[in-house]
Design a protein that fits this description.
16 strands; single chain; 397 residues; alpha/beta; globular
Amino acid sequence: MAMPDPDPEALARSAALAARIARDAAAAGGWIGFDAFMRRALYEPGLGYYAGPSRPFGPGGDFTTAPELSPLFARCVARQLSHWFASVEPVVVEFGAGTGRLAAGLLAALDELGTPARRYAIVELSGTLRERQRETIARLAPDALARVEWLDALPDAIRGVVVANEVLDAMPVKVFEHEDGRLDEIGVTPDGEGGFRWAARPAGDALRGALAEALRGAAPDVPDPFAALGPGRYRSEIGLEAGAWVATVGRAIERGAMLLVDYGFPAREYYHPQRRDGTLVAHRRHRVHVDLLRWPGLQDLSAHVDFSAVARAAAAAGLAPLGYVSQARFLIGTGLLDELGGLARGPTTPETARALGAAQTLLSEAEMGELFKVAAFGRGVPDDAPAFARGDRSGSL
């Protein structure tokens, strides 16, 4: 099914952003890496997908996240945070708060559990999203709004719990192509008609070295790490910015935990020879497609997360692994089945049916239950989290 064209105002914003990106490419000799394109397309002030006037989340947007799908998600996450609050300060620092629905759900659920968050900090640069988050929290958790603050940057020191739901997948990635020993970085160049086309150039030493390290995680026993990609053309991506973010935030944690929820794989699966077209996709109007260079600023761009690289970055920052499980296993370990049992014992209503259907989406292996993973790392935190007591896959990283 064809996607509907954006309205004229949106197309004008996209054209303005495309012109800026084209000027960048011209200044750089006619070519920029895809990570530079992705950064501008998503985060350019006033024009980028997450920095402009669009409302990407929910049924009327381009995709739906777990907190938007069901309030039960936040209730389950809150139980894990409540457990950690026994050994760390009751402070939450959330990145990528979106509409604020997860924040509102966590604040309300933590209050119900008798372990309230003394302070809830949201790191958010977008003024549009800040206002939407404030409105959501005021509506769903009004008594907690006074404990919420918005930050422009990462705090110098964190004592508490960091939460990042679907943050890493939206960080810019470099795209590469390997064939017969040749390694190229894939970027974009203006097509002369207001758009862009893919273009390759030989990869530099820095990219080659970073990829070699990532591929050693996929095939540690193979002398040539690039042999893990198999014969023939292989195109994929590497999330250097995601790793750098994890390391930076990890170093800021003086005592506390980091909880990461996202779709992705360990390196052995991420760089499997059969996954030779990578994981990059675009989202628009709840459709997933690969026309990534179209309409910059008007569609989401994302790549799956290499959780082996995430684990290496956390370890480099001095954090200890606390667990790595599928989203389904995490939610079961934090009481989702008990929540569903309570719903099932109640009267059958349209609201109950919708809640049970949403929970099925969160748990199903064919939907979010297996594709999404939950990873946790910490400093000075006991390794006894109930969410990771069963099904921990940390050894696969």
